[in-house]
Amino acid sequence: MSLTPACPKCQSTHVYPMDNLLVCPECFYEWQPSEEVIETETFDTIEVKDSNGIVLKDGDNVIIIKDLPVKGAPKAIKSGTKVKNIRLTEGDHNIDCKIDGFGSMALKSEFVRKSN
Q: Whose CA is closest to 81, among 96, 95, 101, 51?
């Protein structure tokens, strides 16, 4: 019995041969066993900019520049509120953070500026 390599994309071990290709049933990736697989996706290259165009990084501190209403909350997040230790994500609301008095939040980077 021959050993088949793990899928280069998702690392699944359930790879099977089909004609002259190897196929992964979990992510549907197909490749020739003789090919050298090159990784094309990188997830650590998210570039998020604040309202002033400064690139933000995970762990930065930011300041809210506009009063932001919060659904289900009796009051808005006030302008000037400092948010510590942000985490960048993909999507429309690209900053995950915790705000004192509100808890976990997702913010848009256009409503914050980097703090010192």
A: 101
Helix count and strand count (H, E) for the chain: 0, 11
Q: Which CATH number fits domain 48-114: 2.30.30.140, 3.40.50.720, 2.30.30.40, 1.10.540.10?
A: 2.30.30.40
Structure confidence by residue, pLDDT tens digits, 31-63: 887 765 555 444 456 789 999 999 999 999 999
Q: What is the pLDDT of residues 99-114, one digit of tens each?
A: 988 999 999 999 999 9
Q: How far apart are CA 53 and CA 20, in angstroms?
A: 50
CB-CB contact of 26 with 14 (8 Å): yes
pTM for this model (two decimals): 0.60
Other beta carbons less than 10 A from residue 13's beta carbon:
11
Q: Which amino acid is at 78?
A: K
- Shortest CA distance to 109 belongs to which of 82, 84, 89, 80? 89
